[in-house]
Amino acid sequence: MELSLIWTIAQAELREALRNKWLWLFAVGFAGLALALSRAGLSAAGYAGLGGFGRTAASLINALLLFVPLIGLSVGASSLAADRERGTLLFLLAQPVSRGEIFVGKALGAALAVLTALALGFGLAGLGLGMSGGGETAVYLSLVGYTLLLALAALGLGFIISSLTRKAAAASGAALIFWLALVFLADLAVLGAALTWRPNPAGLVGMLLINPLQIFKVGAIFSLRASLDSLGPVGQYALFRFGEQLPLLLIGLLALWALTAFTIAFAIFNRRGEG
Questions:
Q1: Using one digit for the tens of pLDDT, what is the confidence trace for 76-102?
Q2: Cα separation of 159 and 242, whole Å?
Q3: Contact 82/158 with Cβ under 8 angstroms?
Q4: Which whole-number Å values give the CA distances from 116 to 36, 68, 86, 96, 122, in the listed order?
Q5: Are 23 and 117 contacting, i.e. CB atoms less than 8 angstroms apart?
Q6: Residue 222 near residue 250 (C-beta atoms within 8 A)
Q7: Residue 19: what are its φ and ψ, rounded to 5°?
Q8: Distance between CA 100 and CA 1 in Å, rounded?
Q9: How far apart are CA 136 and CA 52, in angstroms?
Q10: 142 — phi, psi (to 5°)?
């Protein structure tokens, strides 16, 4: 692969993604909510201290579980499908550039756009925490790291949707339905399965860790140096079973989700005979 070609395609994809009004709508919504939570959490503590930061970070986790998959899925879903609908993908394929270079360039540009949107939210939240004199830099950066991995996993899933669809509107609709299933219906499915099959703690941990959002939630709570007791017996079992290796396992699972999603998306994109 020629890196200069990949970077040129990535720059074009980044400019295109940053012109997406939905990306900025979600980014501004996330940034406003993150800033409000950072200010409100520390104010409720009565002083700038660890307790206030812990509550603020816990509130941020709930906001991240909603906004990050939405941003990643929407950007990924509109990438290939929009170019296919406009005919620019066929134009690209007619040039002396391989499908792999096109895919990697577009994935890189889309990832940079998602990271830009998240940087806005985390920047404002960090500014709010910094102005109040609260927070722990290492814990905050750990939360940022888990968030970036979740965003890449969601972006990869969006690319799978984009590889399968021809119209940008259809891809966006499918991404929204998938987001609803991932955020809301997945928890109900796990609850129903647990009530029906009554798995042991190991089985229930396995069921939870199938969902990248649950992996992120467990990792983010653990990074706050909080007890996993809030997750019930499952959290206690995970901590007992994996101990201090739990963060590495969760990071590896999120990275595997992202790598697998992009690999599947490229396989679908590469197998299509037409753009």
A1: 988 888 888 888 888 888 888 888 899
A2: 32
A3: no
A4: 20, 12, 25, 30, 10
A5: yes
A6: yes
A7: -85, -5
A8: 8
A9: 11
A10: -65, -40
